[in-house]
Design brief:
With 157 residues, the protein is mainly α. Helices cover 85% and strands 0% of the residues. Helix 2 packs across helix 4.
Amino acid sequence: MTTREEWDTRSAITSGPGSWPPARCADTRTGIADAQVLIRRRGPAAVVLGRFIAFFRAMMPALAGASHMRYRTFLLFNALGGLAWGVGFTLLGYFAGSAYTRVEHTVGRALALALAAVVIAVLVAWHLRRRRAHREAGDSSRSAAGDRRDPLEARSG
């Protein structure tokens, strides 16, 4: 494994295409350093807000550890963020459900009738297309049967 000095020396000497380490690794290293500075500066808020975004919810413990955040601070704000997330989404579901019940009561019959009309129209269209396809298949089989008749019969008939 290379040390940091070897890494810096190699990237300073070889930064062209096909070099190792690639030049973009230096940008990644500075990006990680910037993220660590941001978490150090706004750590508690980042931990709380990280609970609401799936990717950060999974990555926040590693980012906080890499940023040397105190465990007690992380634990406190992670618990507060989890509590806010759980209560918030539970209440959101509750209010969405009660709003749905009100809307269903108001619009329920009209929507049910409209849905029934659409289903009936789709079934009628399907039946008509099937019937037409069956007729066309029957006509083509009759013409094919007519071609299979004896040529002498076809002239006399």
